[in-house]
Amino acid sequence: MNRNGQPFAFDRDIEWEPAGEGVRRKVLTYNPEVMMVRVIFEAGAIGTPHSHPHIQCSLVEQGVFDVTVAGRTERLKQGDSFLVPSGAVHGAVAIEAGVLLDVFTPMREDFVAQI
User: Fold this and answer.
1) What domain count does the chain have?
2) Which InterPro entries does the UniProt entry name for this protein (predicted)?
3) 3-class secondary structure for 36-98?
4) What is the pLDDT at residue 48?
5) Which residues are CB-contacts of 70 (< 8 A; sequence separation ≥ 6)?
6) Which of 95, 91, 97, 88 is nearest to 70 (CA)?
7) 3-state secondary structure of 23
8) Is 54's pLDDT higher than 80?
């Protein structure tokens, strides 16, 4: 179910919200077990290193990112992906403007507190 209790989410109905300087996100769809979020980065924007108890899988939809997970950094491009284990410190730098598609398990309750 998405935020409206329906099995479908329509991009046109979901507003972007700020997620840091040069970073915006849309919480697309979720239930208590899983959540999908689209995150847009301006060139040079930084996804500040952080950790959380959720497992995260991310896909580079567009752009180029230097992604660090648990101290290892790789340059990722469109079609590449990464996995963040629970509790691992991770972050990203947008080398070019781009978009990440993030999936979390369980859902990020902190992302919907303001919805």
Assistant:
1) 1
2) Bacilysin_H2HPP_isomerase, Cupin_2, KdgF, RmlC-like_jellyroll, RmlC_Cupin_sf
3) EEEEEECCCCEEEEECCCCEEEEEEEECEEEEEECCEEEEEECCCEEEECCCCCEEEEECCCE
4) 95
5) 85, 88, 89, 90
6) 88
7) strand
8) yes
For the chain, give the percent of residues with pLDDT over 90.
Answer: 83
- What residues are paired with 35 via a beta bridge? 30, 104
Q: Does 5 reside within a domain?
A: no
pTM over 0.85: yes
CATH number at residue 94: 2.60.120.10
Q: Mean of the pLDDT values across residues 70-77? A: 98
**Is the residue at 2 inside a domain?**
no
Structure tokens at 89: 């410190």
Q: Is residue 6 part of a domain?
A: no
DSSP state of 13: G
* Within a domain: 1: no
The pLDDT assigned to 6 comes to: 72
Mean pLDDT, residues 17-43 taken together: 95
What is the domain extent for residue 102? 11-112
